[in-house]
Design goal:
With 875 residues, this protein is an alpha+beta fold. 23% of the residues lie in helices and 29% in strands. Strands 18-24-25-26-27-36-33-32-29-30 form a ten-stranded antiparallel β-sheet, with helices on one face. Strands 19, 20, 21, 22, 23, 28, 31, 34 and 35 form a nine-stranded antiparallel β-sheet that branches. Helix 1 (22-42) packs across helix 2, helix 2 (55-64) packs across helix 4 (97-114) and helix 4 (97-114) packs across helix 10.
Amino acid sequence: MAKTKVHVIPHSHWDREWYFTSSRSTIYLVKHLKEVIETLEAKEDYHFYLMDAQSSLIEDYLRYCPEDKTRLEKLIAEKRLITGPWYTQTDQLVISQESIVRNLLYGTRIAREMGHSMAVGYVPDAFGQGGNMPQIYKEFGISKFLFWRGVADNRLKQTEFIWRGDDGTEMLAEQIPFGYYYGANIPEDETELKTYLDEQIGALEEKASTPNVYFPNGLDQAPVRKNLPELVAKFNELDHSREYQIASPETFFADLEKDVTDLPVIAGELTEGKHSRLHKSIFSTRADLKQANNEIENFLSNVLEPVLSISYSLGNRYPHNELAEIWKLMFENAAHDSIGGCNSDTTNRDVKHRYKLASDLATNLLDLNMRLISEKIAQKQPFQFTVFNPLPYEKSGVIKMTAYIPEDNFTIEDTRGNELEYTILEKKDLTEYVLNQHIYLNPSKPVYLPEKVFLATMLVDVNSIPALGYDTIYFNLEKEVAEQQPKQSAETKIENEFYKIQLADNNSLTIHDKKSGRTYTDQMIFVENGDDGDSYNYSPPRKDLLISSKEAIIDTVEASVSGINQALTISFKLNVPYNLEERANGEKTKEMTIKTLISLRKNEELIRFDVQVINQVLSHRLCVTFATEIASKFSTADQLFAPINRPVRLPEMDVWEAEEWQEAPISIEAMQSFVSLHDESHGVAVMTEGVREYEIIGENYDTISLTLFRTFSHMGKTDLLYRPGRASGESIVETPDAQLLGEINATFALTLFESSFDEANIAKKAKEYLSNPPVYQMSDFLNGRLIYVYRDEEKTLDSTYSLGLPVIDGAIISAVKKAEDSDAFITRFFNPYLQKEIAIPEIFQGKERHLDESNEAETKTTLTHAKVQTYLFEK
């Protein structure tokens, strides 16, 4: 019988921040990596050291110790110090698909520039694994997967298996069954060592299906065990039934591949919390930070990068370095603890600050590049605007924009002379401020100065904005027009071409679908209840009190009607408990005000919601529900480059306590942008710009519940209803910031459809919902300190333009950007359907690239289920 080969993997799992700040972590990282370098250089038999697969740690170290770059390059090139493929150890369920791709893109590139990027998808601590990750890994040349959390022994009896992604891609996988910290505490007394090895390695042998076992030696922020080679030699002296060696994940898999046969196949998401906690409701922890993350991620890939590509095609510099800084700020926040929000308040303030930096850089990059284009378009009117379309097809419809407008009435016209409908939602007089900022850079040039200037929020019904391009619109001050502000009334109903919405007697909405004739009742019911959980898990109190907006007291109702938008504003107050003690006693001593703006734009199949909550109470959760009357066994949501069907209730809920699961297998799930309940002929979908968490509830599982926020008092708590036993995180760390006292905002949308899910094109609607066309105002009176003064530029650009990149009909575009290593453009498309395949036009064939932007030989004629494909087109 072959000896067991024990692969001892020295490592440190290095959280960049957690209950401690990134500043503390970095200071200790410098000390730690210095010791690792010295140890590896001093001991040739210390063959490998795994530095948590995060290239960012190498960058962090070199920021303070640049003199060690050559030493690091040598160790990394020799594959002794192991780094990559990640930039940071990212979450895979609530982070956007493009964020994950860019994390690997930057992570592998940095590691390769240093000498070598580990070709193993190493994920020691993320809270679940995304179902389309095998395809993503393979696109980066990674064919092995090493992880801890997500698979229970009811599905997997051994540590080795084949992981099949949602698109069918397969890869060899190894589970670290007892955690990455399993072999951290090795006794050095010989009298204890043999017993320790028999127990620890024996447990791994029982799990393994080959003679190879993975034995991790390390833990969180673990110091390098300098005498590990001597200890391993001692293992071999004491234990003749096994062979011990210091190894790396790559050398482990090289040996494992020689011995594996007939492996079981595990398909899709890995989100079972039987043996390791997954903290599924972490998706709504610190809703304020989640919302900031989601808005910036959407802005980067849906708006900023497409506009930068348009700008680059017109001769402007593409800001690779600035984008890298923004993405890296996002990656720091995407690390599983950081995006989870399961940190100390001090750390979460750092997270919030990074979002501010990322947002500021991104919005100003957009502003500059829109301006670089707009200032080269001939000025035909004092109020001129460039409307950009970040989508790969022509855009028409109502858009939202801000503008400095005159007091006089005006019409809005496009370049073809068409008059555009518009409405002014709100405006503020800024005359003195704006005009006092003006600078006459060229006093010889006459400048139109309006008598009054207002900063306005407007809706404009634009027409045929070119694909991945722009159009110009103008204010015509010479045409008389009626005042374009909506009419206000006390009506309780609104409508457009598709829907009629009425406030019902029970404070919910009744929505009549004009196309189908169906009427949906009990829409937009807010449900408030207690949260006895912590930063890791939502958990209902053992004595809960559910309160819904059906019990609310209506404060005000107002309808606002214009030719292109109708809106209903409902403000009501809920009497709710102040804290968990009051909730247990059935007391309701505090008021919570919920103000909701429901809007219907002209010719749009979306019902838009903008919610403002004044939160003055502690430890609770607020959801909004939509009753669909579609009893279903599955929900459909979008995940990484694909829709996914998930059970509305897991059968493990009936046995989890008896089987002693680490946490309850609740069906609170994550999404990228939408969730839907549907049958073969009709359905309902909810889209979100904010928290990406939902649950299907109701006696018949026919109601979509979207989480708006949850609040709690501590980083960790013990003995939760949904998570028995020890605390996750630090139970002594109080988190008053996590109570989210004050104003909380949430935006989401609803759409109804009379077709199959595939025919409804929900992913396309969600993409458009999250891709509001940006607008730049070119008015000479704004030239000054307000926007940074600019000189006159030669007017060399047309008033309308399209980049003209080809499109795959039916596919969703995930990225448009300049290639990293050439002057060409990168576009990325994926199949958003459950069943339909998409034909790929011939123009794309031969242009295929991998996600890492390297060449791909295979030519594809169809985009099958869950497939993502990247293309390169020359400028």
